[in-house]
Specification:
By secondary structure, the chain is an alpha+beta fold. It is built from six helices and twelve strands.
Amino acid sequence: MAHRQGVPRVVRAAADLRRGTVATDPWYDPDRDPVSRMLEATNQGGVRELEQLTLDVRRDCDLDYLRRAETFVRDAVDTGEPFLVYFNHSLMHMPVIPREEFRGRSGQGDWADALLEMDADFGRLLDLIGELAVAENTIVVFAGDNGPEDILLWRGTPGYWEGSYFAGGEGNLRTPCIVRWPGHTRVGEASDDIMHVTDWFTTLLQAAGIDPPADRVIDGVDQLDWLTGQADSSARDGYVYWMGSQIYGAKWRNFKLSLIAQVHEMDAPQRLAVPRLTNLVTDPQEREAVALPHLHTWAATHLNRVLTTFETSLAQEPLIPMGAPLDHVPTKPTE
């Protein structure tokens, strides 16, 4: 997605990358069965269907995304307009298939080749920003939105943690993030503090000198002072985590309160008879039902505060309903 002067222009995307495997399925009949296609949407022309989503199209789609992003950035810089580019690379989502120019390059299989491809594609955008001499005035955020794939053929790794996407394991909740804003963000520093994905909305608005909307509850916390070194720690110390409409638990610093246990996507969710409190420093794999020998029962005070704060926000304003239009304005409870 790309924005200039507040007007969104949404480029080509796949509704579900997993359906790229359909065309090679010997039991699939395109005359009988649904056909998945690439989609393109713009503010002028609405949504239109493009070519069928096949493995070849899925393999090469990021090259198309990259070309469009590069063209958009060049046009914005040429006209002197501020820009926002959300470059949503399809990797490392399944099916993980590297483009031909990367196949075999790592010597470690398709997954590692695809990782090199993703790195190179983002490198092209960083090089472009440098070439156009706008690096000093461009905030770059490189981040994952969820944990690794659970299916063995394309399984990634959450590193130190355990879990996959579509589950409540720490390996799904804790994802990497790298930020670059020359002259503003601190260079070469790493932090274990919490920054929630919703915080980026508020933080980027603040960086651009824009006030957040005042007609609704804003979940995101402004983290600009922390990112720029004016604060020593994150402005957020916890959050509630979900799967669909179910609250799975809450985080406070490196303590986790699990209400529903599900570490991997294929695991059956299990509502716990007693909420499980985990010290993620001493039990990063979340293996122990009880955090012995200290129990850490005092941490429940902070975790309950996180949950209560969320519940209080619901009393101020209900959740945004599924499928709400882009111009939806939340309604306040009747006083």
